[in-house]
Design brief:
single chain; TolA/TonB C-terminal domain; about 25% helix; 4-stranded antiparallel β-sheet; 9 strands; about 180 residues; 2 domains; alpha+beta
């Protein structure tokens, strides 16, 4: 499947027109200064050494082996970061500060919602979600049943909590699934 990108914006250089926006596969490695992916915006911003900046929106990504020279190496990781979600990674996503910080966060939320928890009874919920390469949380869903009210609280805990530390694979930050057990006591 070939790489297809929709160009959202053109160069921020004042004299550039839409006709001069290069396709990603036409950009030369030596011309790239930086390439940054945005999970939330689903874009790749490419800054050239000339100072020109192009923003590409991912319409669809191919599954090509990027090591074959189709794209400059500096563009490969941002594209792969947007196009893959790992179910397992070398280092999984973690709550910032680790398990002790999670326990403290969980105690705080339970304390703030103690009346709801007492009414609905103590329960344990498992939540699955995606932690993007930039720590963004996405697609939060319950994997276990919970009483009405606690199900919504569990989802809010993940969505409204701090950004997580992303997973890593081969030294790169990647997008990966995470599961978290929440004890409402």
């Amino acid at each position: 499947m070939p790489l297809r990108l929709l160009i959202l914006a053109f160069s921020f250089h004042a004299h550039t027109t839409l006709d001069t926006v290069p396709a990603l596969h036409n950009i030369r490695e030596e011309d790239v200064d930086t390439a940054i992916a945005s999970y939330k915006e689903k874009t790749i911003t490419v800054k050239l050494k000339t100072g020109e900046t192009y923003v590409y929106a991912a319409a669809q990504y191919g599954k090509e082996d990027w090591s074959d020279g189709v794209l400059p190496r500096k563009l490969q990781h941002p594209i792969l970061a947007l196009s893959r979600t790992f179910t397992k990674s070398e280092v999984p996503p973690t709550f910032p500060g680790g398990p002790a910080a999670w326990d403290e966060y969980q105690r705080k939320v339970c304390s703030e919602n103690s009346r709801l928890i007492k009414r609905k009874g103590p329960t344990t919920v498992v939540v699955q979600f995606i932690v993007a390469f930039d720590g963004t949380i996405d697609q939060v869903q319950l994997l276990t049943d919970a009483p009405h009210g606690l199900d919504e609280l569990a989802i809010r805990m993940i969505e409204k909590g701090p950004a997580w530390e992303p997973a890593t694979q081969r030294g790169y930050k990647v997008t990966a699934y995470a599961r978290q057990k929440i004890d409402f006591q």
